[in-house]
Amino acid sequence: MHSDKRLIVALDFPTLEEAKACVKECGDAVSYYKVGMELYYAAGSSILAFLKEEGKQIFLDLKLQDIPNTVAGALKVLTKLGADMINVHAVGGPKMLAAAAKAVQEAAAEANKPAPKLIAVTILTSMDEEQFAALNYKGSIADEVVALAKMAKDAGLDGVVASPMEAAAIRKACGPGFLIVTPGVRPAGSALNDQSRVATPAGALRNGSTHIVVGRPITKAADRKAAAAAIAEEIKGV
Ligand code: C5P
To answer: Is the Cβ atom of 193 under 6 angstroms away from ligand 1?
Structure first.
């Protein structure tokens, strides 16, 4: 069984026990996990300690957004917990993003650890055109995503979270080496749930994504390990 480091499985569970069971079940088919708000609020840093013991990589998806000083303080604490990737909301603005990038570097240096990758959420992948219109932004979703990605890059961030539909435009605007982490990934034929702007795992990587985040198609599968292995197999050739 070969895992693929470009596949990040979203551990969206309400308890530590359920998350641990999923990790044990997926075994060596998955090497990278995403811990989001639900699980982090339920389990706190114990889930990170568990994943590290299991030798897994961690994307801490807490989507921080607040005034620059508050985000910087929170990120200093989170950086020391040892995640490999952390995120903030790009709409927090350039000053918040710059303060976030600085805080992560400083905290990593203080702790004598490699700095986690810091990425920015652009526009949520659940957002469709109708909901987006209600926000009253000037351009299209794609325009807004690219503008936010450029802003994040200029502020010193390592990449963005975006839909696979916008990955190609972000790659063109932000160049090689910029991380593009894409949720909204659905194997052909599987349920969309509440996601709107979706692509298949291989399609997302071909569009320029560096990592794909997959939750329910794996966590709700009858055989989670087989579902994860099938996606890892699909993307191996890309
Ligand atoms: O179950 P599903 O594959 O839809 O899970 C996608 C995961 O990615 C969820 O944990 C969700 O919070 C997260 N996410 C997202 N869209 C974003 C950022 C994060 O769906 N823009």
So the answer is: yes
Tens digits of per-residue pLDDT, 42-95?
999 999 999 999 999 999 999 999 999 999 999 999 999 999 999 999 999 999
Asked if 178 and 153 count as a contact pair (C-beta separation under 8 A), the reply is yes
Ligand 1 geometric centre to CA of 236 (Å): 22
List alpha helices for the chain, DSSP H.
Answer: 16-26, 37-43, 46-53, 68-79, 94-111, 129-135, 141-154, 167-174, 201-206, 216-219, 224-236
Whole-prediction pTM:
0.95
C-alpha to C-alpha distance for 46 and 23, rounded to whole angstroms: 14
CA–CA separation, 66 and 68 (whole Å): 6
Q: What are phi and psi of 186, to 5 degrees?
A: -135, 120
Catalytic residue status for 63? yes
Q: How many domains does the chain have?
A: 1
Q: 186: domain range?
A: 7-235
**Quick one: which of 176, 178, 172 has its CA closest to 119?**
178
Nearest-angstrom CA–CA distance, 199 and 125: 11
Looking up residue 105, the CATH number of its domain turns out to be: 3.20.20.70
Judge whether 101 and 156 are in contact, CB under 8 Å.
yes
The Cα–Cα gap between 134 and 115 comes to 37
